[in-house]
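Thread: flavin mononucleotide complex, take 2
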Amino acid sequence: MKLTALLQQRASVREYSKRKLTDKLLNSLLESAARTQTMGNLQLYSVVVTRSEEGKEKLAPAHFNQPMVKSCQVVLTICADFNRTTRWCQERNANPGYDNYLSFMNAASDALLYTQTFSCLAEEAGLGVCYLGTTLYNASKICELLQLPKLVVPIATLTVGWPASTPNISDRLPLASFIHQETYKDYSANDINSHYNSRENLPENKHFVEINNKETLAQVFTDIRYTKKDNEAMSESLLECLEQQGFIKDASELEEDFNEVVTRPDVLECDVVRFQNNKEKWVAFVGLRDGRPYEIFTGLMDDDEGILIPKRITKGRIIRALEPDGTKRYDFQFENKRGFKTTVEGLSGKFNKEYWNYAKLISGVLRYRMPLDNVVRLVASLSLENDSINTWKIGVCRALKKYVKDCSVNIPADEEEDAE
Ligand SMILES: Cc1cc2nc3c(=O)[nH]c(=O)nc-3n(C[C@H](O)[C@H](O)[C@H](O)COP(=O)(O)O)c2cc1C
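Output below.
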């Protein structure tokens, strides 16, 4: 039968006969399903096959004892699996980076594509299947029962067997309810009426509302079947499972990462940005971490005690050193054409004290990762009285703006040429 015709008459099967499902048929379906699309052809899934009565017995409570678990021939637990790919990388001198949420989502979509393809093939072969959404509700329990290692999380369960009866075919919302041409068109009350009325008027759904003592079908879902309270509790346990299986980090690990980011390394690569305002030449040293501004020091370039560095120098390092009395000192180091290093010691001493203090504040904001366009907006909005501190402000904005894509903040000195 053609797939379209098959889909028109398919339905989830919850009652199974005792007829055996052979390994031969099962394996051929499992193999064919692997022809489905998969990210990078990595096949980020694994399937645990439960055939034994003992295995089903153990799994049943994790599926809230839905009867299909024990009455079907085979329970398939389809898992998002980055463990195998990670192991492959480790064995092949490749450095895997798949212990994160994006990788989980990719593996989860692979697992679902596989599950759905298997489901179509099984139904084509005359078998009946039923998804068990309880998989995600009790994922940690299933991990324990099936001994799933890190980077493996159960995503879907299918009960599979030969149907004992012919189930009713359920309705579907009309095409217009879920198709949007070109852009998403949000729903008016009238749209909702026209999309849901026929479903709400089905005798079985009216009956459903009545026996549950509710006013509407939607209330059956919100108050009984999928409640906010249950959803929140199960979301929490699913997040715990993702954490336990290594796909997301727990709060203390995140704190450690954060502490590492805000602890300044002794040496930071930096860009040297020059600018000119009212004929004065200024310089900004923008310390970079992972390519993002992490601190900024700005001051006059040519005052007596100021900073003079060759024009062609646009990059260097800011090195933090400790004075014998324990105070911190920041040095700028650059290399000449032949690779010899020159160090300008004590940047802080060479800049006006007031600029230095402001620089400390802005660097604090940068270090704690405020989005850069907000930092530019913040500095631009400072209301400062005297001319030179205003020049400083404009310089900081100009220097930082270079790192912001499509920055919408208007900086007055933008029209000026950079100092040569
Ligand atoms: C993710 C997912 C989870 C489901 N979980 C359950 C379940 O736990 N128990 C059940 O009886 N049916 C479950 N189903 C089956 C749906 O109820 C069924 O597909 C839907 O009502 C449409 O009916 P049909 O499959 O007969 O067309 C699930 C289906 C999906 C896709």
